[in-house]
Amino acid sequence: MRKAILLVIIIPLFLSVLNCASVNETQKSDKFPEIKQARFKEEADKELSHLFKVNPVLTEELRKLPELKRGLDEKGLLALNRIVKFYTQSSNSEEVKQIFDRILSIGKKERRKFSAPLQALFWLAEENEIPLGENLLKIHSKEKYRGFNKNLGEDEEVITFVYNIWRYDTDKWKDTNEIIDRLNSPHLFDLFFRDNIAYDFDKSAMKRSDRKYYENWGSYLQSAKVTIKKRKGTCDDAANLADEVLKKTGYNVKPLQVKFGKPSFTGSNRHWVAVLKEGGLFYKIADDAYVKEGIVGPFKSIKEIGEKVAESLGTYMQDYSLSQVPIR
Predict the structure, then answer these.
(1) Does residue 255 have a cis peptide bond before it, meaning omega lies within 30 degrees of 0?
(2) Closest by alpha carbon to 226, among 209, 213, 245?
C-alpha cells in the first residue's frame, strides 16, 4: 500500500521535472537564433566600421542592400567579410577603389534604393572568395551581353558582370518589390526583361476576339507587379512594365503606341514599345516583337521610333501616341 502511495507521489513529480526541462530546452532553442543573430550583427558592424574608415560611401551603399537590412546570416556575414577584405587588403588599392566607383555608378544614386551591381557582387561573395588584387569585373564575366547600347553612358563591363551573376532560378528572384527596386537602370531592366518576360499569345488572342476591346482595354493592361509575377504579357504590358519600373528610379520613360496603315506580318494593326529619353535623345526599349534586340537608338524623335517599329514589322506607320489608350 505504501509503495502504491509513493508511486502516486513520485511519478507526477518526475513528469513535472521532465516537463520543466523540456520547457527550458524550448526556451533555450527559441533564444539561440536571437543570440546568434545578435552576434552576426555585431560582427557585421565591426566589418563595416573598419571599411568606413577608408571608404564611407561604399560602407553606406552596403548598408542599403536588402541583405543587410534584413539582417545577415552566416553566409551573408562571410560575403561581407570577403568584400571588406578585398577592398582593404588588395595591394592595388587605387584600382580597387575605381572598380567599386564603377560598380556604384550604375543607376541614379539619388533615386535608387540600392546598387544592384553591388548586390550582385555580394551574391558572388556568398559563394566564392574574391582573389585579392584581381579585376573581379573581368574574371567573373565569361558570357557576353549582346544588348548593350554605348550611347547611354553606362559602364559595359559592370553590366556584363551583372549579366554573368544574375541567375533567375533562385529564391533571390521571388520578391516582386525587391525585383522592381533592383532593375534601377535601363540596362539592368533590359537584362531582366529579355531573359524573363515572354509574350502572352493567349492574352493577345483574347484581346483580338473581344468586340468591345476599346471599351474594355483598361481591364487588360497589367501592372508591373503582375507582369513580373506571371513572367509574361503582351506588348502594352511590356511597355507599361518599363514605364513603371524605370520611372520609379528617375528615368524619363513613356509607352509608345504605333498604329499601322496595314496589318503587320504578325497580323496586328498596332504595337507598343517603351521610349526612353536620355540626354535629349530617344531610345526604344522593352520591344517584345519578333526579336528582343535590347535598347535601340539613339533616335532624334519619337516619330522616327514609330516609323522604325512599323518598318521592322513589315508595314508602315499610320499614327502614333505616347499613351496606353488604343488609337481607334
Answers:
(1) no
(2) 245
Residue 41, pLDDT > 90, answer no
Q: Is the Cα torsion angle 279, 161, 243, 205 positive or negative in sign?
A: positive
Could you tell me the CA-to-CA distances from 21 to 9, 15, 291 in Å, in that order?
19, 10, 66
- Going by their DSSP bridges, the two strands 252-260 and 270-278 should be labelled as antiparallel
Q: Sign of the C-alpha dihedral, residues 82, 87, 89, 95?
A: positive
pLDDT at residue number 44: 87
Q: What is the pLDDT of residues 101-141, one digit of tens each?
A: 999 999 999 999 999 999 999 999 999 999 888 888 988 88
d(C-alpha 155, C-alpha 269), whole Å: 38
Q: Is 258 exposed, middle or buried (0-12, 13-18, 19+ CB in 10 A)?
A: buried
* Side chain identity at residue 274, one-letter code: A
For 276-299, how does the pLDDT look when each residue is reduced to its tens digit (9 = 90+)? 999 999 999 999 876 788 899 999
- Confirm if 231 and 173 have CB atoms less than 8 A apart: no
In the chain, what percentage of residues exceed pLDDT 70? 89
Burial 29-42 (b: 16+ CB within 10 A, else e): eeeeeeeeeeebee
Residue 17, all three cell numbers:
521535472
Report the distance separating Cα 207 and Cα 290, nearest Å: 19
- The C-alpha cell that represents 14 in the structure block: 518526475
Q: Whose CA is closest to 123, among 90, 83, 176?
A: 83
How far lies 22's CA from each of 14, 27, 216, in Å?
A: 12, 9, 62
Model's pTM, two decimal places? 0.87
What span, in angstroms and rounded, lies between the C-alpha atoms of 286 and 272?
Answer: 9
Q: Which residues share a beta bridge with 233? A: 199
The pLDDT of 228-239, averaged and rounded, is 96
Q: Which three-class secondary structure string do you get for 42-65?
A: HHHHHHHHHHHCCCHHHHHHHHHC
